[in-house]
Amino acid sequence: MKALDGVRILDFTHVQSGPTCTQLLAWFGADVIKVERPGVGDITRGQLQDIPKVDSLYFTMLNHNKRSITVDSKHPKGKEVIEALIQTCDVLVENFAPGALDRMGFTWERVHALNPRMIMASIKGFGPGPYEDCKVYENVAQCAGGSASTTGFDDGPPLVTGAQIGDSGTGLHLALGIVCALFQRNATGLGQKVSVAMQDGVLNLCRVKLRDQQRLAHGPLTEYPQYPHGTFGDAVPRAGNASGGGQPGWILKCKDWETDPNAYIYFICQAPVWEPICDVIGKPEWKTDPGYAKPAARLPKLKEIFDTIEHWTMTKDKFEAMDILNKYDIPCGPILSMKEIAEEQSLRDTGTVVEVDHPTRGKYLSVGNPIKMSASVSEVKRSPLLGEHTGEILRDVLRFDPARIAEIEASGAIGAPTRAAAE
Ligand code: CAO
After folding, report:
1. Which phi and psi (to 5°) does residue 251 adopt?
2. 3-state SS record for 380-420
């Protein structure tokens, strides 16, 4: 049994943010029916293709465990199919540009009238306000949500991060909203609208920076690399690799850093393990020196302290350094490349990295469900081919009889009309 067995999702999502959400729900057992435009499908099927005419990894890695039906939702017969799906499904999830679903005729009022129990979940770039009509992609959200202005080094431009906090982060937020709405529906019997704006999702993940914005009014941010020699303006500056929390940290070079771009370790000078740190790096005198012994005394000297620690880390490779530091409970982490992550056996063992077989692509690696549940174990099943399940959904989910299916097929609403019907 799976946690969301019995929940049926009408998945109108595309690209990354929405598909992340519905993939998660599918991993928890929901029956996710992905609606795609006949002959076209989710645009990512054809984007960043590594093998010609084969669904891209972009698509396959975001659409596991789903079924695909092709329907032209602007065609009158296609609308009939969508309406029937709305009446059978529990949740409609979409991340179209603002207004697109309304233009198809599926406003919240219409959806609610067709199925009062339906939860209608949407991702947009922005909430109500000056930018509400804008189309938005990942990096736009990172910029508008406060991430880019606070990422990077003080003397460089704003930076986006490789973690897809705008798309996948917002999909995660939406999934939680949907599950909460399903829970509330148990009590009320009614669906509701669930909306997440990507700007809001990113800001939620950047809340420590809004914390720092307010701290700035009371003096310099002493854990930031700008302290004590640099200057602070009126907005939170970029903090390089400084830790976002109360324990100073930095990324330090390890052995072979000259040739290996990932020969680095994240090192945290956690106060309770200051003494072992001093011993490990060969500075036992810092344990009692009043200039170093207490966290407050160390703050103005963090650069010098991390430079000294780096002299030690540069003599070890990142895994050797990890082994030594972990013996003393000194918090640290190797900078792992995607190659190392792909090869890491422990991630395979937990199902976080999985090998999936696909009929046209063959075997590929994907990221499995990072949320582990003891009584709802996720299996990763390959993504559907375009329209692979159109027939079975019309027949088994909507229970349309053969004559009705033939009529819809002939109309062209679910794909190219069959030759016989067209003639
Ligand atoms: N049948 C018929 N028409 C369909 C259809 C179907 N099955 N599926 C989609 N369409 C139509 C839509 O109705 C829309 O038509 P109109 O503009 O005429 O109403 C059209 O396809 C394109 O939809 P779109 O505007 O959403 O797509 P886009 O590629 O131009 O924009 C994106 C993409 C992501 C910028 C936009 O959807 C968006 O801003 N979404 C919200 C924010 C979001 O999720 N962004 C993250 C994307 S992941 O990086």
Report:
1. -90, 130
2. CCCCCCCCCCHHHHHHHHCCCCHHHHHHHHHHCCCCCCCHH
Distances (CA, A) of 20 to 127, 251, 315, 380: 20, 30, 41, 14
- The torsion angle over the Cα atoms of residues 134, 138, 141 and 147, rounded to 10 degrees, is -170
What's the one-letter identity of residue 353?
A: V
Closest ligand 1 atom, residue 16 Cα: 48
Give yes or no for residue 101 CB within 6 A of ligand 1: no
For residue 317, report the distance from its CA to the centre of ligand 1, in Å. Answer: 47
8-state DSSP, 107: -
DSSP 8-state assignment for residue 301 = G
Cα(98) to centroid(ligand 1), Å? 8
CA–CA distance, 268 with 278 (Å, rounded to integer): 13
* Closest ligand 1 atom to 13 CA: 44
pTM for the whole thing? 0.96
Cα gap 254→325, rounded to integer Å: 13
Bridge partners of residue 333, in order along the sequence? 266
Q: What is the mean pLDDT of each run of 10 residues along the chain (423 residues)?
A: 98 98 98 97 96 97 98 97 98 97 96 98 98 97 98 96 98 98 98 98 98 96 91 95 89 98 97 96 97 94 96 98 97 98 98 97 98 97 97 98 97 70 33
C-alpha atoms less than 13 angstroms from C-alpha of 362 in its C-beta half-sphere: 2
What are the CA-CA distances from residue 420 to residues 59, 406, 407, 415 (Å)?
A: 33, 11, 12, 14
Is the CB–ligand 1 distance for residue 121 below 6 Å? no
